[in-house]
Write the structure tokens for this entry.
Amino acid sequence: MAGETEKLNAFPIFLRVEGRRVVIVGSGDEALAKARLMAQSSAEILVVAEKAEPALAVWAAANEVEVVRPDADFLEGAALVFAATGDLEKDARVVDEARARHIPVNAVDRPELCDFFTPALVNRAPVAVAIGTEGAGPILAQMLRARIDRMLSPSLGRLALLAASYREAVDRQVAKGVERRRFWKSFFTGSPARAVESGNGHEAIEATERLLRTRGAERGHVALVGAGPGAEDLLTLRAQRLLMEADVIMHDALVPQAVVSMGRRDAERISVGKRKGCHSKTQREINELLVALAQEGKRVVRLKSGDPLVFGRAGEEMAALRDAGISYEIVPGVTAAFAAAADFELPLTLRGISSSLVFTTGHDLKGKALPDWARLAIGGATVAVYMGRSTAAEVAGLLQQAGLSPDTAVAVVENASLGSRRLFHGTLADLPALGGRKDLAGPVLTIIGDAVAGANFARSKPLASYRESEERLAVRGERS
Ligand code: SAH
């Protein structure tokens, strides 16, 4: 067997059904399922039933599908027939009649009676991915379908139509071989694809024209992509797709390796650090590198933890790209506050208690001036503090100075969304202890406000208990 491919007993082909009749015999769920499937094509569907069950009748009326009673020649002129009566004997009779007229027939749930099988279908008309298992594993087919569906852009069909409209022009103007391959690759992953994806038809045409003039030499592009809080499956589908198309992936230290390695295997990966105490590039160096890579024509994914527009210095990177005339886009991500709240089952807004949300940082609390968000906290806002571990005491002090009660509830999450997450709860009075904790090595997010009371404390430890017990344990652990 080694090296040999197993033979398919059913060979996949795409059958032209436009304007042709497909007959579905049956009145219930089986018939409805097949009718729905065929309705993804432009075939003319005819349902044959003594009396269609309500669900089928309603669907048929809504979709302008004709339902007729079985008469002598309902198979006349059919391109395909489905036996979907739900009754073994009746289905077998339909199969016999179809075969007598040499019309390919499918009998629902009877693979041995089928001339053809229907695939699980990923439909991006005119592009289709059909998954078949020769009737062996419909559930497996559905699982594969879902996976492939996630991989393909929703706008792929429109992009394919645009490609078709340019096929002749490309054949005329771009030399066959390497150059033409480069053209289409740039078309399907570069600026035309991006313009179609963002719903801008006019720009897509302009981009295609430009690509024709440059014979497929594409200009560089940078995507500022949110990697989410850490868990790989909190990445968006769009982020994943861009990672698969990237030439270069430039990431911060906070983005876990598992997410970075989701990108195209031969993409260049550049870590730009940016964690306290790590060797890292300056923001200016990062900006310059982004511009330089794009100017080389590279597709760059600038991967940032959480959401790129929340404490991500994206403003500076966008300004540098704009100044250099480089095209870029932003892909949002799940920000740490949302992941931390989810881990804590903590409602960030709570009816009647908190109706606003502040994202702030303990990092640039300059001087002793009361930051304006402290007043919002008094007004009942829920406050999410980023980068607030070393400045926990200042944050707590400022909020109390502003008049917030020391009893105000506080939730702290280390490594939100990850298996290694740790949850702590306490009050504003306990918060200063956070700054001195040597056992918290991961990123930490703090949520302050009355809405915290709505959280689930079943898996969290009291912030205050640390000093008495755990510090001693940690110290002992270090010594031994
Ligand atoms: N753009 C990011 C924030 C970057 S600033 C976002 O939208 O989430 C870095 C800070 O984010 C960290 O100091 C920490 O406060 C927070 N953070 C990031 N990931 C986190 C995680 N998994 N758990 C807790 N806090 C996190």
